[in-house]
Amino acid sequence: MAVRCRGIYATALTRLLDSADDSEIVQASPPIERRFDGGFSSGPADVSVVPDDDRLGVGLVGDPDSVDAVRDRFEVARDTLFWSDPTPRGAVFEGVVTETLGSGAVVDLGDSEGFLPYGATDAHIETDDRLRVQVTTPAAPWSDDRAELGTTLTVDGELATLVRERSRAGTGGPDLLDVLSVEIPDGWRVSWGRDAEDVGFDVLEAALDHKVERAEELDAALAEADEQVDTGLVYAGEGTVWVLFGRESRFALDEHRRDVTVTMPGHHRIKAGDERASAAVDFVEELTPDLDSEFPFDVVTRQFGPTEGDQIAIAHGKPDGRTISLGRGEVVERDPEGTVRVEREMSPGGTYDALGVERQAGDVAATKFTEGKWWYPTVYRSADGNTRGTYVNVCTPVEVFPGEIRYVDLHVDVVKHADGTVKRVDDDELDVAVQAGHVPKPLAEKAREVASAVENAL
Description:
Distance between the termini: 51 Å
Helix content: 25-40%
Strand content: 25-35%
Structural class: alpha+beta
Number of helices: 11
């Protein structure tokens, strides 16, 4: 099983895969070549490990069986979570345009939706148009993005991509194809990757052989779907799984990376929070031969935020992969040991979950987030300062990033009413999440332990 790794987690994940007998790293980046003393193949990959734009995890894209095997290898801690993408890379759908925006159109794909940039199609797009589209760029479930679509059908690869067109001519295509013993199906052309000229003919032939098989599968699927009028999937595309690394996972990956090269405490935790911090980590590790201490929360937050007076978002992750914004609040206090206190003014209307108390004008929610804790409390107070109730959310370990607080909610919570009554809630929702495969059993057991401890403490 050949795997290509990129992104801020590449060294740690390469270490995990390189130590296994059933996998090999291919097309390694120059830093990976240097850290592992080279020797990697330039051959085609069965699975590509791709970073997500938020740096919170990775996507696994490629042969479905190989993707599943890599997925199992990447379960590095209790708060490593996985989701299969309903809009995998390369999948083809019959879709309907539901909305036109300034830069593109929203397309209903049946059980999901995607975004078609106007530049990705030659057609004039209007609402209710029916289109055959392909997923070009999947989107992580925790992001606000939709999967990006196109109308030109391709079979993608790093070394070579097949493009479905009438002409077989393409940049560099005819010259290289003349010396390769690979027959390209009618109606397809080759678009070579930038590294194609740097590898041997045998590597290119192996890459094309696999692409030709997929192109023939896609042709067959399209032939069967020519009469399809319903919105939905036409061709399944590549296996696509998203991996979200929680705080414990990031520190576990630090240890794997430390086996290979100098790694400061909280390496992946800091890099996930901010691009400037990521560059600073690289700088520090280049200068420092040995770093062996605790995660430097005070230094990181003083340098990159959040600090008192900052506005910060609360990214409330759900076990099914979605992220819900709980709004923004002001950081009113920052403890160098790892705690920030955030206050939000609440809008009137509705009630506070599980407390059964109406939200009133002037109410303030005071929330204390502590880096690394499996829970956080929110105290709701009225305009005159009276406590209206306390809600303790049980979640994966809290991470205080420069622009947002992030965690994944684990359903079970504990509330304390204004009269002092304590109640544990939503154990049933956690049971459902476990049965659905959204929360692993060890993670659920930890959530219940935390809830019991909080309940006893209150």
